[in-house]
Amino acid sequence: MTLTSFGPANRIKRSAETHPLTWRLRDDGEAVWLDEYQAKNGYAAARKAFADMAQDDIVQTVKDSGLKGRGGAGFPTGVKWGLMPKDESINIRYLLCNADEMEPNTWKDRMLMEQLPHLLIEGMLISARALKTYRGYIFLRGEYTTAAKHLNRAVEEAKAAGLLGKNILGSGFDFELFVHTGAGRYICGEETALINSLEGRRANPRSKPPFPAAVGVWGKPTCVNNVETLCNVPAIIADGVDWYKSLAREGSEDMGTKLMGFSGKVKNPGLWELPFGVTGRELFEDYAGGMRDGFKLKAWQPGGAGTGFLLPEHLDAQMYAGGIAKVGTRMGTGLAMAVDDSVNMVSLLRNMEQFFARESCGFCTPCRDGLPWSVKLLMAIENGQGQPGDIETLLGLVGFLGPGKTFCAHAPGAVEPLGSAIKYFRHEFEAGIAPTSAAVPPLARPIVVGA
User: Where in this chain does the entry annotate a coiled-coil region (predicted)?
Assistant: First the structure.
């Protein structure tokens, strides 16, 4: 895995002032363990939070910083923390770290957990102090075996150093932390499905309200945050709100830095910590190095498989939620994928929709039946056996499975790339429609859902 600092030639070194997430990384890619982490000012923010800050002040600081969730939804972290009950009589609360990173083209949390496990632990420790949670779980994607090994070792190191467990730093505050590996379901990235899975139940999303802050894991108040989100907390506490806000580029409404990347047939695929507000063109050309020789950029996704496709002319959009929204899609996880000119969009979308159909929990009808239906139609078009009306049916499914039409956000994310692909590359879909003398009404086609 590649992680480069501000520039592919490392012309500018990572520093604590500019790279709060990655400045401690080792050049050899090995994990930073406790002694080295503390030598690099690790756990200083936790000591400050425990010694000098009231719990509510920690929450307010995070809220003032403008930190938003880094898992894809972008909900303000401080606002989420503020939803936890203030009633001191509720003495059982939980903090969950969503480390179920199963979004295709996304691997940022893996790097943090494998190489900087103590950064996540420190972020959770400060967050637990702020939220008055006595127990935390890192819900980890089961395939991340190296991350699991490194996190478990780091937890044991922190326990031995008195940074986890009973009476942490002499404060009287107790916090236990456990690493829980999941069974491998994409839907566990949805926070209530994650909670159900942690409880040993089927990983179906729950109805909201009640929200996890009121009724979460085992019926108790629960806060769920993403890995990268929690890893931002120590720097905010250590260096303050004004500094954190100053990291973002002018024009960005999102604060701080973001782990961004590019995959596909680019010259320098990798992952970089960059300020919010850099343009897609900077990310693509200056860091990813542009396309490999012999390939041209046809389209790109800005943040994982659940975001809409963009064209090369959209590369000048700024990489923050509002900047990407201006060109018609979402920032998502911030790890982009380049689609080269050798790729047929129908085949690409068929592959994507197969993944999303397989990963549906099957709880609600639009998602359970609509996604396999889209796969059937795409397979027919891919094989040149599509019928007149199939494209309109696909667009109808994009509407039927859109935001607000399903129980959770799985289906809307699944069909967003489909709708954008038809918008920009409709001619490729039309090429798969077989010649016929009579049009078949699109809803009259014999579709065997799930077959």
Answer: none
Distance in angstroms (rounded) separating the CA atoms of residues 360 and 135 = 30
Q: Round to whole Å and give the CA distance between 153 and 1.
A: 21
In the chain, ranges of CATH 3.10.20.600 domains: 247-340
* Assigned fold of 247-340: Ubiquitin-like (UB roll) (3.10.20)
Rounded distance, CA 448 to CA 369, Å?
A: 10
* Residues of the chain by 3-state class (helix, strand, coil), percent to 5: 45, 15, 45
What is the model's pLDDT at position 78?
92
- DSSP H helices, 83-173, are 108-115, 117-131, 145-160
* In the block, residue with structure tokens 């970089």: 272
Sheet architecture: strand order including 257-263 = 270-275, 257-263, 335-340, 297-301
Q: What is the rounded average pLDDT of the residues 358-378?
A: 93
d(CA 115, CA 447): 48
Strand ranges inside 168-239, DSSP E: 176-181, 222-226
Mean pLDDT of 291-320: 96
Q: What is the pLDDT of residues 309-357, one digit of tens each?
A: 999 999 999 999 999 999 999 999 999 999 999 999 999 999 999 999 9
Q: What is the residue whose two structure tokens read 């090429």?
A: 431
Q: What is the per-residue pLDDT for 15?
A: 87
Q: Please check whether the domain covering 34-245 is classified as CATH 3.40.50.620.
A: no
* Mean pLDDT score, 2-10: 43
Query: Where does CATH 1.20.1440.230 sit in the chain?
Result: 345-444
Fold classification of 345-444 (topology level): de novo design (two linked rop proteins) (1.20.1440)
Nearest by Cα to 286 from 267, 300, 302: 267
Give this prediction's pTM: 0.91
